Amino acid sequence: SDGSIRLHQMTSEYPLMQWNDSTNGQPVIALQWALTRPAVFFVLDASSNVYIWDLLENDLLPVAKQTVPSESVVTMALLGEPEKTNGLLGIALAKESGQIDIQYVKKKWALP
């Protein structure tokens, strides 16, 4: 609820990494690991901002932030086929109106 993100290992109750205020204090609505690239995850906050984290590129801050204009996004899901190496990774954004917006992610964050 405060915008912090923690990375845990299953064998410990203490986080390996913790990023406080990673969404400028906005609650995290959804977080999902990329299906095609293990070091990348996506975060959706309550202000309809999508943050892309690539831990191999920068483990302190997100590498990209995209604001979804016009109306609030209530959830997200990632689309892709981990067994294929074509680098296709999509993000489905469900808006408050019921509309679904699907966008493709740049290959640099999708390739294995």
Automatic annotation (TrEMBL):
<dbReference type="GO" id="GO:0045503">
    <property type="term" value="F:dynein light chain binding"/>
</dbReference>
<dbReference type="GO" id="GO:0005868">
    <property type="term" value="C:cytoplasmic dynein complex"/>
</dbReference>
<dbReference type="GO" id="GO:0005929">
    <property type="term" value="C:cilium"/>
</dbReference>
<dbReference type="GO" id="GO:0045504">
    <property type="term" value="F:dynein heavy chain binding"/>
</dbReference>
<dbReference type="InterPro" id="IPR042505">
    <property type="entry name" value="DYNC2I1"/>
</dbReference>
<dbReference type="GO" id="GO:0042073">
    <property type="term" value="P:intraciliary transport"/>
</dbReference>
<dbReference type="InterPro" id="IPR036322">
    <property type="entry name" value="WD40_repeat_dom_sf"/>
</dbReference>
<protein>
    <submittedName>
        <fullName>WDR60 protein</fullName>
    </submittedName>
</protein>
